[in-house]
Amino acid sequence: MKFEFCPKCGMKLTPQTIGDEGLVPFCTNCERPWFSFSYPCVICLVINENNEIALIKQSYGEDRYVCVAGYIKQGENAEECAIREVKEEIGLDVESVRFIASYSYEKRDNLMLGFVCFAKSCDFTLSCEVDKATWFTANEAEYKLKNASIALQLLMDYLRIR
Ligand SMILES: [Zn+2]
Q1: How far is the centre of ligand 1, averaged over its atoms, from the C-alpha of 39 (Å)?
Q2: Rounded to a whole number, what is the largest CA-CA distance in the chain?
Q3: How far is the CA of 71 from the centre of ligand 1 (A)?
Q4: The whole model's pTM is what?
C-alpha cells in the first residue's frame, strides 16, 4: 500500500525527507508521514499429532490446495490471528503455534507471517469460504502445494528446521 492522499483528511501527500527513511509521502495538514507498507496476514501450516498437514480448497479462486490464511485484524497479534483463522476456516482448536518465517507476497502486496499450528486430528467444521479440507502426509502436501508458492516455502522451511 502506497499512499497518495492522506487517509485522515484526504489532502494530496507530498514527499518529504524523514531521517534515514528518505522521501516519504507526508501530509502537511496533519503534519505526519504515511509510510508505504504491505498488508500483514498469516499463513498457517496446520499439523496434527500424526504429523499430517491440513490443506484446504477455497470456495472462491482456483481449484487447488492452499494453507489456511487470513488478514490480521486491527489490535490483534499474529499468533491470535493464526489461532482464529484455523478455528474459523476449518473448526480446529490450535494447541500451540510456532513462528517459522515471513514472506513478502508482492502479487497481493502482503507480508505473510508463516506459522505452524499444532492441533489434534478431528473432524473439520468448514466455513463457507472453504470447500474442502484434507489431512496429507508431508510428501503429499509438498506435491499438492507445488503451485502455491508461499505455502510450499513455509512447508519446506518447517521441514528443514523441525
Ligand atoms: Zn492529512
Answers
A1: 21
A2: 58
A3: 26
A4: 0.91
